[in-house]
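A reminder from the course coordinator: this example appears on the midterm review sheet, so study it carefully.

Given structure:
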């Protein structure tokens, strides 16, 4: 299981560790969804459309390594390496996202505590760069949802 610890209060920066050893880093973009990630010495850009419901993970040459579609919906997918990973929101009251294979829950991404921003990424069988991409997509989705809730709460 990967643990993503937020390293900045003002920015969406996470250090990703596996058994206490840093394996990746995520830095969210400031004014849009997406960001940059570093995994196993490789650098990737994560970009979204203007609605934040599709994301692409691009290598240095601009080639698509992974893509997420229907982000923010109850069910959404990530495609990478010829495989499609199906995610579902764990429940109406939770921000957790579960990974399904053949109708069976096989993994999840969830906050470690209600008040904190640290995230547990448990996606067995999913390549490490794709796991970090999923983390970035989910963190971006959570931030967009939080911003939408904050902007609609005033009166």
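Designed residues:
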């Amino acid at each position: 299981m990967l643990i993503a610890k937020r390293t900045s209060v003002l920015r969406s920066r996470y250090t990703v560790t596996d058994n206490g050893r840093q394996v990746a880093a995520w830095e969210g973009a400031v004014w849009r969804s997406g960001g940059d990630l570093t995994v196993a010495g490789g650098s990737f850009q994560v970009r979204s459309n203007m609605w934040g419901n599709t994301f692409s993970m691009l290598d240095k040459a601009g080639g698509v390594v992974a893509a997420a579609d229907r982000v923010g919906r109850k069910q959404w997918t990530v495609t990478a390496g010829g495989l499609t990973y199906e995610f579902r929101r764990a429940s109406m009251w939770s921000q957790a996202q579960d990974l399904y294979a053949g109708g069976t829950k096989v993994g999840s991404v969830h906050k470690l505590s209600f008040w904190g921003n640290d995230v547990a990424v448990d996606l067995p069988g999913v390549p490490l760069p794709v796991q970090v991409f999923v983390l970035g997509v989910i963190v971006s989705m959570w931030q967009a949802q939080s911003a939408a809730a904050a902007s609609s709460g005033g009166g």
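The mean pLDDT is 88. The radius of gyration is 15 Å.
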